[in-house]
Design goal:
CATH topology of the largest domain: Rossmann fold
Mean pLDDT: 83
Strand content: 15-25%
Radius of gyration: 20 Å
Distance between the termini: 41 Å
Number of strands: 17
Low-confidence stretches: 4-15, 77-88
Amino acid sequence: MCEYYQKCFLKGGGVLHKERRETIKSLLSSRDFVSLKELCEMFPDVSEMTLRRDIEYFEKRNAALKMRGGCKSLIFDADTGTGRTSGRITENLSAKRAIASKAVEFLETGRSVFIDSGSTMSTLCDMIPERRYSFTTTDPRVALKLCRSTPSAVNIVGGRLEGDNLTVTGLQATRFLGDINIDLAFLTPTGFSFEDGFTVASFNECELKRIVVEKAKTVIMLMDSSKCNRALPYTFCTMAGADIIITDSSFPRELVRKLSDMGVRVIIAAQTK
């Protein structure tokens, strides 16, 4: 009998709803892909339809991406520091929701808006009102969410899909962004420090974000305080290159002061308990 099944099997009662989902969460934390067939074998007393609903449950919580035959984990290999967004999907959720709720206030219909890839942006998409906007993104998950939840025009850049973070990068992507106008850009860094500015681990991602920063009339960085005092190899934006930073209450006060002195507006998003 599978180790996970042994842990969750209750005497005379089968696998309970809560324990089953805890088991699936453990699987998603330990491997890149979990197949529906594997879940059916693991939980023979549970219908395939119920297991599909379990997968949808984790997809709605940004822990999995539903695919043919199962789901891709978005929490496997947590926070390796290599630019992979999947490990950060379920971290600091309260801060990300607070940050996203503040970011939505800057949306205006009739403007061209760029939405970056990543977990904070996915959270932002959940809060966008059902109005007509014009969005461009490099994240297929963000594009799908926007199409499902709003009547907006949604553009996704072409190029190479990076398997680690499901972000489109490469020459085609940079050419596409070079040909469009951007009024407002929501960006998120992997790291941020006073010395190095806003940084990421991937050169291709850095080049793409640099173009967005150059093109956008207003650049808004969405970042929780866990990104502070971390420096990744590639800087895509200096401190002064951002117009607004939306962050949480743990953001260092010294950095708030320095940024304000440079003309960068810092918004602290209050978290609800």
